[in-house]
């Protein structure tokens, strides 16, 4: 954990320093470059807090503790809303970025008590665990496959935002709102896989591939049913959902129509994204490097870039 925290801190500092270059490279068409740089620097702390929050969540879930990891997004959104309520009038959009930074801190704080209690309970076993870890070399290849897979998956969003930065004002906001809402069915369906992931990992560690495969097959089938139901709801009710959630103030009926259209497009890919999320965990929990998920995700990134560029046009 100390080494990870140091790496996260270095990466966050690099993002803050290189913010002007990153904004220019990732969103060259933005009209207010300085505002985007300020927001990027404010949210650079999330490299540290999100990384630590993910580590805490993984550790707690491995010990079958799901309440604290499930509460992190409540804490995250509470931080955003609170900061925007206090600073919104003076800071404008920057208050949202500051809220994201505060929310990231709250994500870590929400899990620390539970994690510390678990560590205290296992303090007597720590010496043997440390000895085992010292004797076990770091699986660099496995770590690399997981890291590159995650980067490829997140780069799809960056490609979309890059292409949308040259479109009329509001396009990036439409994409962001549509993605957040359309992904709710996928998030709900993958909760099942999150709960059963320790079962799959334990079965694979014990060499019981039949039990692991049976669990994964049932998870994928149930998650697919849930996400298809959610996708159908999004396609059928997209305008009504967007109108209920967002249409007020500066968010007009035209914004509702544009966001609803994007939501319906996103809904077409929900099944594929859900299956990827469910199956990737079984590959990586086997304890050995597997480049197949990375290759599949890289192909998806290329398809996103080509299709997006063709749709946006010159």
TrEMBL record:
GO terms for cellular component: plasma membrane. It is a multi-pass membrane protein. Keywords: Cell membrane, Cell shape, Membrane, Peptidoglycan synthesis, Transmembrane, Transmembrane helix. It is found in: Cell membrane. InterPro entries: Lipid_II_flippase_MurJ/MviN, MurJ. The chain crosses the membrane at residues 42-60, 67-89, 95-116, 137-159, 182-200, 220-246, 266-284, 291-312. GO terms for biological process: lipid translocation; peptidoglycan biosynthetic process; regulation of cell shape. Its main location: membrane. This is Murein biosynthesis protein MurJ. The lineage of its organism: Bacteria, Bacillati, Actinomycetota, Actinomycetes, Kitasatosporales.
